[in-house]
Amino acid sequence: MAPILRAEGLGKAFLHRGRHPTTLRGFVEGGWRGARAGEQFWALRDVSFEVAPGEMLGIVGHNGSGKSTLLRLLGGVMRPDEGRVVAGAPVNGLLDLNTGMHLDLSGRENILISGVLAGLLRSEVRDRFDEIVAFAELAPFIDDPVRTYSAGMRLRLGFATAVHVRPRILLIDEVLAVGDAAFQRKCIERIDRFRAEGCAIVFISHDMGQVEQVCNRAIWLDHGEVRAMGSAVEVVGAYKATLMETSRRLTPEGPQEMTFQGRALIAGENRIGSGELRLDRVRLLGPEGAVTGSVAQGQGVTVQARVDVSRPVPSAFFSITITDAGGALCFDTNSQVDGVALPDLTGGEVIELTLDRLDLSPGSYTISLGLWQSDWSHAYDYHADAYALEVSGAASKGPLAPPRRWVIHPGGA
Amino acid sequence: MRPFDRRQILHALDVLTVLIARDQKSRYKSTAMGVVWAVASPLLFLLIFYFLFAVIMPLGIANYASHVLVGIVVWTWFQTSLSEAVTCIPYNATLVNLPRFPVAVLPVASVLSNGVTFLMTFPILLILVWVQAAGPSLPYLALPVLMLVQAVLTLGLGYFVAALNVSFRDMRYIVPILLQLGYFLTPIFYDLSMVSERGRMVLSLNPLVALVTAYRAVLIEGRWPDWGAVAAVFVFALILLALTLRFFRRSSDRFLEEI
Description:
The structure holds two protein chains of two kinds. By secondary structure, chain A is an alpha/beta fold. Chain A has two domains: 5-242, Rossmann fold; 257-392, Coagulation Factor XIII, Chain A, domain 1. Chain A has eight helices and 20 strands. Chain A has a six-stranded mixed beta sheet, sandwiched between helices. In chain A, strands 12, 14, 16, 17, 19 and 20 form a six-stranded mixed beta sheet that branches. The longest helix of chain A has 19 residues, at 232-250. Chain A is globular, with a radius of gyration of 25 Å. Chain B has one domain. Chain B is 76% helix and 0% strand. Chain B is built from twelve helices and no strands. The A-B interface holds A 14, 21-25, 27, 72, 74-79, 90-93, 95-96, 99-100, 102, 104-105, 109, 112-113, 116-122, 145, 171 and B 4, 7, 10-11, 14-15, 17-18, 21-22, 25-26, 29-30, 94-101, 167-171, 174, 253, 256-258.
């Protein structure tokens, strides 16, 4: 199908001007050159791509790689210094869901505001009003002030309004990173429907898994340039490989350490990361809280790690991955996906993640743990396949072996 | 772009409507006494000036309370609009970030929303004038014209300071100082007739002088305003608006880079 959104050699340059914004005072003191002086740098250069109706293009890259600038250029709120954006339909955004909301006003009044700000006419918002309220599942509260809503209710209200714009080109920025699982599922379903109806979507996310899952194509931006473009799975794969490579390159030489299970942690081999934060004293605890390396099928396990800080960093994400003996992924999560904010780590904190039940089939598993920089650009400390977990019980087939009961109800006559 | 044009205009008007409604409703919902505050502040200034210049050192201006209140109410609309316009871009950064958001409505919303407040204080003004000076008369028909001229003038300046503040952040400190100065260069608590010939030449460069004088002519004296002076202000305001709107539009491409 012919593309509906096209970026042709997009480039955007900014001036590095130190931390202070320009002032009239600076202008008077230094003249035009003084006030305007600054080093020009390209936030985005030579970016070209096309998106056809029904396609979803993911944009991945570190913070500062130019993702947000690209989104603003596509949205037409910033003008490119090079190249151009050709859009065959009005561009809509699913950017900040609570834009323009006023907490003292009711849900009803806020729907009108958000709807109009999202590009609808007032009459169109009124026509879709009932649909929006139904989608948001907020009918009983619609005349209460938004101040009384929970954060989740506000998001639902914002999202419900935004999706009733019926866009043909949609820009999505990290929206799916918020809200609970049910809300995220609803968002994804709705986005799938947009695609089915022929909407072209550009999607920015830090969450590689999500990009892999919902996008069919992806672009990897690195320092404002396209590093890779192709199928979402390939691009995310390449991005992740580089992530590991970067972490490996940043890994300082360090003494070999032993895990509690007596396995060696060797810097640059099964332990990589830049080392500002380190995971220390990692333990696996059984249901009774005793240090263990094996749990019975159907029981839970707690992963515990102490954080050691050599240089404080503002924030970090904690990740855990469980793979089976054959290396197949069984479970993977992190504090960002689970919506848990780690505090500023100063050293000595103990992070505990309890898996209430581990319904894995009996066998040997390995656990990888990591502390990552908050834009996922590299690991502070990543222990690859460093911990062994034995799940005991009667052997069964397949990865899953939930505890089970059989009941045969007698047939009634 | 052509097929969207009519819709774009309708949409910009709707955006304007919801922004003004949001502003007004929130103002009067967040403070239980919202409407009272809008009226109380000019009345408080009226009391101060009345006490100073009618009781302590009388200036000998006829119908002084009405005279001052007309000045205060007209000036308040002008001043609150401009103080809001100067920060309207950074203040509404999330809106500016929305695709297809008509940025040019932001200064209009500042002027019109404060215009609504102006209209709400108008009844108080009328009551005072009727009690003290003169009842309603035919020249009241000039009032909408005066308001239009004032709105255009304020908007012309509003576009200018809004766009300038994005490049020069200290505008938000400079504008209040200039407004403070303007307050004294406009005959609000004094009368133009008390100013020397030379002083009047200087003051006549202030377009607000002609407007305040015209409002007073209509409301207090019950006669038609000096149409020549009002027309001169209107022409000036239109030219100003045309120039500053262009300036605003040219700057608006850079708004997001600066905020």
